[in-house]
Amino acid sequence: MNKGGGFVSESVRRLSEETRRLAELYMSGEVGRSVRPAEFGLSADFVDSGPTPDRLYAEAVRRIAACAPLRILPGEKLAGAATVSEAMRHEVPLTPYRSISHTTLGFEMALRFGYRGVRRRIETRLADNGLDAGERDFLEAMRLCLEAARHWHARHVAELERRMAAARDGERRQLSAVLVALRPVPEHPPRTFREAVQALWLLWNFQRLCGNWSGIGRMDKMLGPFLERDVAAGRTTLDEARELLAHFWIKGCEWITAEGRGSGDAQYYQNIVLAGVDEQGLPVLNAVTDLVLDVVEELRIADFPIAVRLSSRTPERLLRRMADLQRLGGGIVAAYNDDRIVPVLAQFGYPLPEARNYANDGCWELLVPGKTSFGYQPFDALLLQETLGLTRPEPDERRRKIECDEWAPHARPDGARRDYPDFEALYADFHHRLERQIERLTDASAFSDTPCPLLSLLVEDCIGRARSYLQGGPVYTVRSPHAGGLPDVANSLLVVRRLVYEEKTLPLSDLVAIVRSDWAGQEALRRRILTRFEFYGNDRAEADAMLARVFNDYTDLVGARRERHGVLRPAGVSTFGREGSVFLPHRTATASGQKRGAILAPNLSPTPGADRRGPSAAIRSHCSLDYSRLPGGTALDLKIHPSAVAGEAGRTALVGLLRAFVRLGGMFMQTDVVDNDVLRDAQAHPDRYPNLSVRVSGWSARFATLSREWQDMIIARTEQGRYGERP
Amino acid sequence: MTGTVFDVQRFSVHDGPGIRTVVFLKGCPLDCFWCHNPESKCRVPNIGYAPGLCLNCGACLTACKMNCHRMENDRHVYERAGCRRCGACAEACPAAALETIGRETNVESLIAEAVRDRPFYEATGGGLTLSGGEPLAQPAFAAALLRAAKQASLSACLETSGYADGSVLREVATLADKVLFDIKESDSERHRAGTGVPLEPIVANLSRLAAAGARLELRCPIVPGWNDRDGHWRGLAALARRVRGIEGIRLMPYHPMGVSKAERIGLDSANMPREFPEPDTVAQWAHAVQALTDIPVGVG
C-alpha cells in the first residue's frame, strides 16, 4: 500500500531516477488531463459523397493518423500515444460508432509477420474475383486502415528526426535509440527486444488511439524469446530491458486523469497474462515474466492488471514472488489455474494447442487471443426469483430504461404468485425461469453491422472470410452467458426450504410478505436467519450443495446450447462489480436476510459477511463446484487483512492459498490484501492516498477515483482472517 | 471422547508452521491479568453478552428460568448473579447478542473439521494446533485429539502454558509434532504476581520436555509495562541457552482484543492494558532478544 504524495515505491529501487520521475508525472494525471477532443474532422465533401460505413470508418482512421497530436515527452523510450479524448470514451473518434473492447488481439501474429505480412494477405485476398461488393469494400477499408497506421508511424519518425537535428549530445543519443528501434516496426517483424517492445506498443496503442481497448495478452510469451536472444548475444542487459518495460507501463497510464469517475481510472481492459504453457504444453516462464513483476512492484501501476497462469508445476519461486506483490495490496496480480482451465477449454471444443494458449478479454473471461470475437451476456439470476415473490413484484420499466437493458427482468406470465406444495415445486418454477432466460440469451443475435476494419486487421480469419470482427470473421465468435447472483439465489432457497418446508415455522406467503416489506418489523427473524444459517462460503455441505444444484442446472442449460448460428456459448458466472452498480437498484430484500440495497455476492464469491470461517473455507466452498462445466470462467474474490499475511509465515500462507486453489480445481482467484480501516480513511481523505489501488473485478482501480457506491462495495466485501479476532 | 472447546479457527498462520486449524480448549489454571482469551479461563461454558447487538426483543426473559434478564425502560439488562449458564437465553436470542461460549464436542467431529483443510496444510507444512486455555486442563481429551490427528496423518502442535503435572504433560506433549511452550515471565516473583502461578514447575517441565526430545518453540507474550525489559530479555535468552532443543523464540506483542471479550463475559477488565505496542517498539524487542541468542527470534 502506497500512501503519501509519491506514487512509486520508496523501498524498491531498480529503475533509474529519470524513469521514476516519468512515472510520477503520468500517474499524477497531468498527461491524461491534457488529452483533448479531436480538433479536426471528416471533410464535408467526403461525408456528402455517401461512403459506406467501412469507408467512413477508414477515412476517420486516416484523418486521426494524419492529424492527431503527437506526444513525445523528454526521456521516453517508446514512441506513440493515444492523444484524442473520444477514444477514452469508448468511441471511434470522428464517427458515430462505438469502438470495441473485451478482446485480446493477435499481437503475437502481428509481431511474427509485421503489418507487411497483413497487407500481403489483404492484397492476395483482394485478387480473388469471387468477392462480392461488401467483402471487397471491407477488405479495402482494412487496407486503408493499414496505410493510416503507416502514416502515423511515419509522422513519428519525421518528428524524431527533426528533434534529433536540434538536440545536443545526450538527448540526441537518446532520441536516436528511440528512432532506430521505431523505424522498422511494426511494418517489419521486430528483430530485437527493443524493436519488439516498440512494435507491441504501437500495435496496441494505435488501436487505442482509434478507440479500441484491447487486452495485451501473453506478454512474456511474446517478448521473452527476443530478450533471451539479445541477452545471449550481449545486445542488451536485464536492467535495460526492465527500463524499457517500465516505459510501456508508464505510457499505459496516459489516460489517467486522477479525476473520480464511476468504476475508476484504471478501466481500459488492458490486461496482461503471464506464465502458463505454450501451444506445445511447454512452460512459459522467462526473464520477461520476472521483469514485469519487478516493474509492477516498483511502480505500483495497477492499470495493467496481471493474471498469472498457475498449475501444479509452477515453481515455488514464482508463487513467492506473487505473494510478495499481493501483500503490497492493490490486487494487481491475480491467478488462473491451468490445470483446470486448459482441459475445460479443450473439452468445450477448442483444439488443444489453442486451449493451451488461452488469455483473457482484457478482464478475466477466457478466450483464444487473436482468434476470437468476444462478448458476454450478464444477467441477474436473483431476479428470476421474482415469480416466487422473492424479489420486487413488478419490473420497473422506467428504471430499466435508465439503468441498463443488458439484463431483462421478466413479468410473471400469469401475473400472480402460485403456491407451491413442496420445495421441489418451487424450485421447478425457478428452473423454468432460468431456462427461459438462457433461451432468450442464446437466441439473441451476436452479429452487428457496426464497422471495425482496423480492429479486424489483427484477428485471424477476418481477412480470409472477408468479414469483420462483428460479422463472424474471426475463427471463433463467442457470446458467453454470465449469471450473477447465484450465491444469493442459493442462500435464499436454503432459507425457504428450511423455514417453509422443513421446519414449517413460516408459511411461504408470510415469508414473501416479509421480504417484500424489506423485513420491516422483523429484525429478530432477520437476525436469527443471519446468525443461525451457515451460508455459502463456510465449507458447509448443505449450503454448498444448494449452490451446486443451481450451478449445475445453469451450466446444463447453457451446455445444451453450446453453439447456435455459428456462435459459441460457454457458460460463465460473474458480476464484475454489478452487485454494487447496475444490479443493485433492481434488487429487493432477500429471503436470506439481506435488506434492500445490501451489496450481495461478487462473482462466485461468498456474500459479504456470510463467510465466517476464513479464506480456506471460502476457497473450499468455491472449489466444491465442478468447474469442468464452466468454460466461460468465474472468479473468487478474496480480501485478506494485512496482519493475517504478515511476515514469512504470512507469505507461506499466501503461497499455500494459491497452491490449494490450484489443487482444489478453482479457475481464477483475485486476492486483495487490504485493511478496511485504511479504506475508510481513504474515503474520508482521498488526498492522502492518491495511489491506493484495490481490486474491483478483473481490473484494479485507484480507490480515490472510484465513486462512492463503488468504494462502499469494495469495503463491504468480507475481510478474511483478521488477526486476533477470536470470539 | 468429548471435551469442551470454545473455538475452532481455520486459516491460522501464526500458531505453528504453515496454515493451521487451531482448536481452543476451555479451562486454564493460570490467571494472567492481560489474558487475550479470557473466555478460555473457566472450564465450563460462559454466557457472553454484547449489548451492541441486542435488539431488546425480550426473548431471553421468556427463556430464562432464573430471572436473570429484565427490561428497564425498554432496554434489556442481564444480571449475572444467579445465572447457572444453562444457555437457554443464548438459544433464544435471535441476534446472538447472548451466546454460549464453550461447547461439548467430540474428537471425531473436530478431526473431521480439521481434515477439511488438508490441501492447505500440505501446501504449507501446516496442520492442527491445540491451544486454549490450557489444553492440559483437559489432558485425556487433548491426548485423544493428538492421537486422532496422528491417525489422520495430520501434523499436530500443542500450545501449552507448561503449568501441568509433569508426567502427564510429557505424555501428552510427546504425541505432538511440535510444542509451542509459553514463557510469560522469567523472574519468579513477577511471574507469580502476573499469572497467579509459580514459574519453577513451568521451567522444570520445559526441561523435561526437552529431555524427552520434544521439538520446542518458546512463545513469549510481551505486555508493555510488565515484561518489556532488559532483565526479561536476558532471562529468556538464558533459558533458551540452558534448555537444549529450542528451535525458536516467538515474541507475541500484546493486543487489547481481550478487553472487550472479558467485558462480554462479565469479567473485570480494569487492569488490562489498552494500547497496542508500536511496530517500531516490537522490532526493538526482537532485536534486543536476538542480540543475546543464536536461536531465531520471530514476532507475531
The named CATH superfamily of the largest domain in chain B = Aldolase class I
Strand order of the largest sheet of chain B: 7-1-2-8-9-10-11-12-13
What CATH architecture label of the largest domain in chain B applies?
Alpha-Beta Barrel
Alpha-carbon Rg of chain B, integer: 20 Å
In round numbers, the mean pLDDT of chain A is 89
Residue fraction in strands of chain A: 5-15%
CATH class of the largest domain in chain B: Alpha Beta
Helix-and-strand structural type of chain A: alpha/beta
Helix-strand string of chain B: EEEHEEHEEHHEHEHEHHEHEHHE
Strand fraction of chain B equals 15-25%
Helix content estimate of chain B: 25-40%
Largest interface, C-beta closer than 8 angstroms, per-chain residues: A-B, 37 and 37 residues
Largest sheet: number of strands, sense, barrel closure of chain B: 9 strands, mixed
How would you describe this structure to a colleague?
The complex is a heterodimer of chains A (727) and B (300). Chain A has 26 helices and 15 strands. Chain A has 727 residues and is α/β, with parallel strands linked by helices. Chain A has a domain at 378-623. In chain A, strands 1-2-3-4-13-12 form a 6-stranded mixed sheet. A 3-stranded parallel sheet of chain A has the order 7-8-11, with helices on one face. In chain A, a hairpin with a 5-residue loop joins strand 5 and strand 6. In chain A, helix 8 (193-209) packs parallel to helix 10 and helix 11 (287-299) packs parallel to helix 12 (316-327). The longest helix of chain A has 34 residues, at 133-166. With 300 residues, chain B is an alpha/beta fold. In chain B, helix 3 packs across helix 5 (139-151) and helix 6 packs across helix 8 (200-211). Chain B is globular, with a radius of gyration of 20 Å. The model of chain B has no long low-confidence stretch (mean pLDDT 95). Chain B is built from 11 helices and 13 strands. The A-B interface holds A 523-525, 527-528, 531, 539, 613-617, 619-620, 644-650, 652-653, 655-657, 659-660, 663-664, 720-721, 723-727 and B 6-7, 9-11, 13-14, 17-19, 24, 36-37, 39, 48, 55, 57, 59, 94-96, 99, 101, 116-117, 119-120, 123-126, 255, 257, 261, 298-300.
